[in-house]
Amino acid sequence: MKVDSHRVLIRPLLTEKITGLREKTNTVGFVxxxxxxxxxxRQAVEALLKVKVAKINIMNIRGKMKRLGRFSGRRSDWKxxxxxxxxxxxxxxxxxx
Length: 97
What we know:
Radius of gyration: 15 Å
Number of helices: 4
Largest sheet: 4 strands, antiparallel
CATH class: Alpha Beta
CATH superfamily: RRM (RNA recognition motif) domain
Mean pLDDT: 92
CATH architecture: 2-Layer Sandwich
Low-confidence stretches: none
Strand content: 35-45%
Strand order of the largest sheet: 1-2-6-3
Shape: globular
Number of domains: 1
Structural class: alpha+beta
Number of strands: 6
């Protein structure tokens, strides 16, 4: 399925685990469109953020079952991408946070 470059990257992931990965291995995380593949994610990151990508790992995260009293529901499924940047590349949006 064709997904627009601006719609591939939904938002950055800012967790403690990904912050540790960013400092050690120059890896950043994003929530991405569920239909996006590695090629589309690479093109979107390189075009929108102006950095070179070395490697991409993708994970489909299943939504959890949640309850509120006797009512049960389910969180949505989502896709996570861990993007490893090439040597010497860095994102300025993470430097100010």
